[in-house]
Amino acid sequence: MALIVQKYGGSSVADADSIKRVAKRIAEAKRAGDDVVVVVSAMGDTTDELIDLAQQVTPLPPQREMDILLTAGERISMSLLAMAISNLGVEAQSFTGQQAGVITDSVHGKARIIDVSPSRIQQAVDAGAVAIVAGFQGVTQHTNDVTTLGRGGSDTTAVALAAALGADVCEIYTDVDGVFTADPRIVPSARKIDRITYDEMLEMAASGAKVLVLRCVEYARRYGVPVHVRSSFSTHTGTLVTDAATEEGAPMEQPIIAGVAHDRSEAKITIVDVPDVPGKAARIFEVVAGSGVNLDMIVQNVSVAATGRTDISFTLPATDGAAATAALTEHQPDIGFTSLQYDDTIGKLSLIGAGMKSHPGVSARLFAALSEAGINIEMISTSEIRISVVTRADQLDDAVRAVHTAFELDSADDQAVVYGGTGR
User: Fold this and answer.
1) DSSP secondary-structure letter at 192?
2) Which of this chain's residues are annotated to bind substrate (predicted)?
3) In this structure, which topology does domain 3-252 adopt according to CATH?
């Protein structure tokens, strides 16, 4: 007997028929002898519809009230799923994030989990029931206000519960058969990866791969929770995300390249003619940090000797572009730059693999593939297991396909399938 935490995304519970199909899978796992805890997202596009509804009422809804509104989506799906499981003759009980003991900080809209006390969930499991938990939500420690965890919050809820319960595995069910070497919607010949390390998955998630969110993988690595990414639309074995070094039967050496990720959600800001003196770069990034913006890639050009000035470029989430630009403009007099350039038509491509650190020539092959495809590179960033480049957004798909082929990642088998059309 194993304790399994399963998470089902919105595309997996999009309508009544989908909920019945998921309920059947859960009931089969329970009847096979396993204890099952399920975390569920809101049905289909429910969260987006609730956001649209709030904005029809007011352009600036209070964050506290938005959190209460948005948690309704998961509560609907959790109760319907519990009903469907009960209809199959298996006892099921549904719980909100608060009832499940998910304690968060007080940042509405993007709260972080600080503790999980799943006593009620454990009681339900001990009594032989399937526990259904609403993902994406928690409650503050001191005020008991409802909070939401932001994008990918249900994945994070599932891994956090798995860690707190000491589960054997956390199964993340989505609408693809696992983690692929590239987005199968762009590269239909992408190969499914059978096993990937936490570090590689962290880099892929941070670089734009949508199948798992960064916070979920960080939590899994911190607490050693094995994550199995599977499709709720098939019975295929998916991708196991784990610490390969501690797993029996792990390969002696990892493949050179795990995959190619891409991201269209970033923008680039170039600060023109910054005085090239100590302290100016620090002041720039203090201002940006003060506006609550996280940066990704940073490049400073060589200063022009005649002027003693330089340009500094960085990428950031496009949704934070207005805040960063406004903050820098406000502090232009004391920083002393000439102008700002904002560009939201960029794309980021990342090549990821734990094996590349011990194999020379990876960068040369990457840049040769992009050159042959006519792709111009605007920025470059590297880590021990990742190389990222910024290109034009309209060239990104071609760049992904070119690099994927250059590193011989294309599958000779059937093309990858995205069952629900979203990749999540």
Assistant:
1) B
2) 47, 74
3) Carbamate kinase (3.40.1160)
